[in-house]
Write a structure and sequence with these properties.
alpha/beta, four-stranded parallel beta sheet, 20 helices, elongated, 4Fe4S_Fe-S-bd, metal ion binding, Fe_hydrogenase
């Protein structure tokens, strides 16, 4: 099984939950999202980019790089509105990611919470409560030893990347849930009947929340601002709530680089603590994980950690300014009481995940490569224009149904140029292309014969130096196409039918010439024959008239003589008749 059939079968086995997709109307075949995707979880179908759900880690990077803004993050706002509509029978509580102080673009964090209560939520609590429990669990595991390296489990995109693509790193991934899931378990223990909604800047949290089984919905910051607008709630216009004593919780640093490391009250010994942010840097570390030793690796898929999340509301200063706001917010509770949380199960399995990709044989790969003109390794440019690092990777993607043959841009350009060359050179008409400054872009041999051009290397030269181009000048000056049925070429003493077409979009003049010399000469010969025939006919007619006149004259004399003879005969006969009487 290969190609689109394989893709269709895989898609039909999916759960049907879509977290990220692309709008068909906006995709322009630029392949930029595929080039930027760290795990190549994008396929092309009918010239449209589509997310491969089972391969996607939901890092959201494609949502930032798409020049057409074709990304579409699945919104659960309607589901949250339904939950709020039934809040009298089932209260709805919020787990609010600490990055809200920077990710919403609202100056006063307390007003954000006030706005959430205005929406109808029964409780708003920061996810940092769960993050504190996660940090404490990390400390226990580190103190117990047994980890050559230790990778944090707070970022669901990193977790999934390890599960799918770096199985060698699974033994180092902390068997601990993310702060969101840990906090949700605490909320569920305290409010068993409540619906739980997480709010943050992360797309990957949507799938993690869905798979957790206890989180009812996940909103991005974009979703939340949409709800505020829908309900006519302006957080900035709300009265500032009285600030109570905020609990001391260093886990509020989680959203910034090195925030997890900073959340420890005391770092367990035996490890070097390193923060790695950005999907490419994470991949670089994970690919060499077995060669590393004694590292505590705080990994975040997004650059600048959660303050650089794909669904943050970017403000002035960007993620750097956002990180400053989070650090300032976290530091304001330095003198508060320590955070307390209920005891819950903080173990989490991170099993190996597999895709349904198949590894094709060398013969199949070579067959695909040859279809794009790559008959030997020397032909494999590995330019990356299609989005894949190598031509072989792209061939494997084609065989898995993720890519099309035509996505090889150098091949398509070469084929287009070859076809264009063959068409232009083999057409029975003369073809010439020039730009708006009358520089010759292309010309075929037929046009050169018609125009009397003997220099075969005239591309790039000005047409004025090579042939009479007054009709092209006239077309450009008038701003319209022209079509002349008969043009005399002085250089070759030939005749042509000329059409000049203005290609305004490309700023090109396109000339088509049909040699009509033989037709013109035939018409001239035919006209000469006609005139000669007319002259001959006229002479014959004149001769015939003269003969007719001569015959008529002769007939007239003979008739007169006959009349006289007959009258004489009549008189004679009458005379004899009278005598006999």
């Amino acid at each position: 099984m290969s190609g689109n059939a394989a893709t269709a079968d895989r898609d039909n086995t999916m759960s049907g939950t879509v977290y990220l997709d692309f709008k068909n109307a906006k995709c322009k075949d630029c392949f930029r999202c595929l080039r930027e995707c760290p795990v190549k979880a994008i396929r092309y179908e009918n010239h449209q980019a589509k997310i491969i759900e089972q391969k996607c880690i939901l890092c959201g990077h494609c949502t930032h790089v798409c020049p057409q803004n074709a990304k579409q993050v699945h919104s659960e706002a309607d589901a949250v509105l339904d939950l709020l509509a039934a809040r009298e029978t089932r209260p709805v509580v919020v787990s609010l990611a600490p990055s809200f102080v920077s990710g919403l673009g609202i100056n006063d964090p307390e007003k954000v919470k006030a706005a959430l209560y205005a929406l109808g939520f029964a409780l708003v609590e920061e996810t940092a409560v769960g993050a504190k429990a996660v940090t404490d669990e990390y400390a226990k595991l580190l103190s117990a030893g047994g980890f050559k390296n230790f990778i944090t489990s707070a970022c669901p995109a990193v977790n999934r990347m390890i599960q799918l693509y770096y199985p060698a790193a699974l033994r180092y991934l902390a068997p601990v849930p993310s702060p969101m899931v840990a906090h949700a378990r605490m909320l569920k223990k305290r409010f068993p009947e409540a619906a739980i909604v997480f709010i943050g800047p992360c797309i990957a949290k949507k799938r993690e929340g869905h798979e957790s089984g206890i989180i009812d919905a996940v909103l991005t910051f974009e979703d939340l601002l949409g709800l505020f607008r829908l309900k006519n709630i302006d957080p900035e216009a709300l009265p500032s709530p009285a600030e109570g004593e905020r609990e001391l919780n260093r886990a509020r640093y989680y959203p910034v680089p090195s925030g997890i490391i900073k959340s420890f009250d005391e770092l367990p010994g035996g490890y070097e603590y390193v923060a790695v942010d950005g999907v490419d840097r994470c991949a670089e570390v994970l690919s060499e994980i077995d060669s590393l030793d004694g590292l505590f690796l705080e990994m975040n898929c997004c650059e600048y950690a959660c303050t650089g999340g794909p669904c943050r509301i970017a403000g002035k200063g960007g993620a750097v300014k956002g990180g400053e706001a989070v650090r300032k917010y976290a530091a304001t509770a330095a003198d508060g009481a320590p955070v307390t949380y209920p005891e819950v199960d903080l173990t989490e399995a991170h099993p190996r995940l597999m895709t349904d990709d198949f590894v094709p044989g060398e013969r199949d790969i070579r067959a695909v490569l040859e279809k794009t003109g790559k008959h030997s390794p020397e032909d494999e440019l590995n330019c990356g224009a299609c989005g894949y690092s190598t031509c072989r990777d792209k061939a494997i993607a084609v065989l898995n149904g993720y890519a099309d043959i035509e996505m090889c841009l150098p091949y398509m350009r070469s084929r287009a140029e070859s076809m264009s060359y063959e068409i232009i050179q083999n057409t029975p008409n003369g073809i010439v292309l020039m730009d708006n400054e009358f520089k010759i872009l292309d010309i075929n041999a037929r046009a050169m014969r018609i125009l009397g051009v003997t220099d075969h290397d005239i591309k790039g030269r000005t047409a004025f130096d090579c042939f009479d181009c007054e009709d092209f000048v006239a077309a450009l000056a008038m701003g319209k196409n022209i079509n002349k049925k008969k043009v005399f070429v002085r250089a070759t003493k030939r005749y042509m039918e000329l059409s000049v077409v203005l290609l305004d979009e490309h700023k090109v003049l396109f000339g088509v010439m049909k040699d009509i010399t033989d037709s013109v000469e035939y018409d001239e010969k035919l006209n000469a024959v006609k005139m000669e025939t007319l002259a001959t006919t006229d002479e014959v007619i004149k001769k015939q008239m003269r003969v007719a006149q001569e015959i008529a004259s002769l007939l007239g004399e003979t008739t007169a003589e006959t009349k006289v003879a007959l009258l004489k005969l009549k008189e004679t006969l009458q005379s004899r008749s009278e005598d006999e009487e």
